[in-house]
Design brief:
This protein is α/β, with parallel strands linked by helices and about 375 residues long. It contains eleven helices and eight strands. Strands 1-2-4-3-5-6-7-8 form an eight-stranded mixed beta sheet, sandwiched between helices. Helix 7 packs across helix 8.
Length: about 375
C-alpha cells in the first residue's frame, strides 16, 4: 500500500511537472474558455450595477501631443470605478484597489475560472466598488509626455515621477514597465523558487498562470502626476459612499492611508493585502490620525523567498509593516497584522485574492469587518 501511495505521489509530481514545464512557452499562451468558468450554484441578484469616473481634469494640448487633429482639450487623471450593489439590507461598502502592473480584474473571476472577490463580497451583502488606478486600464493616462518625447519636444512629463515597483532593484524611469512571467510574477509573487517549480502546497493555481499573464498591463505610473490623483479620487469616493472599507494590494498598499490623510471622513477601515510598503515617512501627527482607523494587514506564506528583483523580500515588507503597526499602537490605535502561515494556512502567494483558498481568506477579512467595523458603527 505504501509503495502504491509512493508511486501515485510520484505520478502526480511528474504530471504536475509536465503541466508546469509548458506554462508559458515562448510564442504561445494558455486559453481560458467560457466553458471553463465555474458558474455559481445560485444566481447573483443585484439592486444596481454600473460604472463611473471619479476626478479628472480638462487640459489643453497641442496637435503633436494628441496626434489626431488640431490643438484641443482632453480629460486626464480620472479614476474608473465599476460597482455592484446587492439586494436587501446592505452592509458597509467596500472599495478594492489593485496593485502594480494590474487592474481591477485582479478581484474578478480568477485565472482558473473561480468566483472572484468582486462577486463574493457582493454576495456577502457588501456594495462593492472596484477601481482602475489613474494611468491604468480603463482609467487611461496622459499620452502627451510620451508623444512629446518621441517627437523630441520634451524629455519628461510635467509632474512625473521616477517609479520603483515593489521588489525592483532600481528606479524604472519614465517608461511603461511590466512584470515578466518567469521572475517578475513567478518568483516575485512567490508561486515557487524558480519558474515551473511550485512551492509545496502552493495555493495559486499555477496551471493557469498564463491567464494571469494576460491580466498584466503596461504600467504607466511614471506618467501620472504627483501626488497621484488616485489618492484624492479614493478619498472622494469613500466620502461619497459615506463610509467604506478600502482594500489595497501590493503597490497600492499605502493608498488607503494616504487617502485618509487627505480626508478621513469616508475611510471607515483599511485592509492592506501584502502592501509593497508601509510608509516610514508618516509624521507623528499623521500616525495619530491613522491610529483612529481600524486596519487589517494580511500576508501569505514563503515570505523569505528571494523575489528575483532585488535583495528585499516580502518578509522585509512584513517587518516594515510591523514597525508601522507599533507606531500606530503607540498612538493608541491597532493594526491587526495577520500572517496566514502563522495561523496554519499554508501556501498562500502574493495574489491572495486569486489563490485556491481565496474565499477562505475573504471570509477572514469579512469576519474582521463584521467585528471591527460593522459592530462599532
Amino acid at each position: 500500500m505504501r509503495l502504491a501511495a509512493n508511486l501515485s505521489s510520484r505520478a502526480s509530481a511528474v504530471a504536475l511537472g509536465v503541466v508546469l514545464s509548458g506554462i508559458v512557452p515562448a510564442g504561445t499562451v494558455s486559453a481560458q474558455t467560457l466553458k471553463s468558468i465555474q458558474a455559481p450554484a445560485t444566481p447573483l441578484v443585484l439592486k444596481d450595477r454600473g460604472s463611473f469616473y471619479v476626478g479628472g481634469r480638462s487640459v489643453e494640448q497641442k496637435a503633436g501631443e494628441i496626434l489626431l487633429g488640431p490643438d484641443d482639450s482632453v480629460t486626464v487623471d480620472q479614476m474608473y470605478v465599476e460597482y455592484m450593489v446587492p439586494v436587501g439590507k446592505a452592509k458597509i461598502p467596500v472599495v478594492m484597489i489593485h496593485g502594480a502592473g494590474l487592474s481591477g480584474k485582479s478581484y474578478d473571476t480568477t485565472p482558473d475560472g473561480r468566483m472572484g472577490w468582486f462577486e463574493y463580497f457582493v454576495r456577502k451583502s457588501h456594495p462593492t466598488y472596484v477601481v482602475d488606478q489613474v494611468g491604468r486600464a480603463r482609467s487611461g493616462f496622459n499620452q502627451a509626455a510620451i508623444n512629446n518625447r518621441l517627437s523630441g519636444a520634451s524629455t519628461a512629463p510635467t509632474g512625473s515621477v521616477t517609479l520603483t515597483a515593489p521588489g525592483a532593484p532600481a528606479a524604472i524611469g519614465q517608461g511603461a514597465f511590466r512584470f515578466g512571467d518567469r521572475v517578475g510574477v513567478w518568483t516575485n509573487f512567490r508561486f515557487g523558487p524558480s519558474f515551473g517549480e511550485a512551492f509545496p502546497g502552493e495555493q495559486f493555481p499555477v496551471e493557469a498562470v498564463g491567464e494571469l499573464s494576460k491580466q498584466a498591463i503596461p504600467d504607466l505610473t511614471s506618467q501620472v502626476p504627483q501626488p497621484n490623483p488616485t489618492l484624492k479620487a479614493l478619498s472622494d469616493l469613500a466620502g461619497e459612499l459615506e463610509g467604506a472599507v478600502l482594500i489595497s494590494h501590493s503597490q497600492s498598499g499605502p493608498f488607503p492611508m494616504d487617502a485618509a490623510l487627505i480626508n478621513p471622513k469616508g475611510v471607515a477601515a483599511i485592509v492592506a493585502l501584502e502592501p509593497g510598503a508601509c510608509r516610514a515617512s508618516y509624521t507623528d501627527d499623521q500616525i495619530a490620525k491613522l491610529a483612529k482607523i481600524p486596519t487589517l494587514m494580511v500576508f501569505g506564506d514563503n515570505l523569505g523567498a528571494p523575489t528575483g528583483l532585488g535583495a528585499m523580500t516580502w518578509q522585509n515588507r512584513l517587518d516594515g509593516c510591523r514597525t508601522y503597526a507599533a507606531r500606530i499602537a503607540a498612538a493608541g490605535g491597532k493594526v491587526d497584522l495577520v500572517s496566514t502561515a502563522e495561523r496554519g494556512i499554508r501556501g498562500n502567494s502574493h495574489m491572495l485574492m486569486q489563490d485556491r483558498n481565496s474565499l477562505q481568506i475573504a471570509d477572514m477579512i469579512l469576519k474582521w469587518i463584521d467585528e471591527r467595523v460593522e459592530r462599532s458603527s
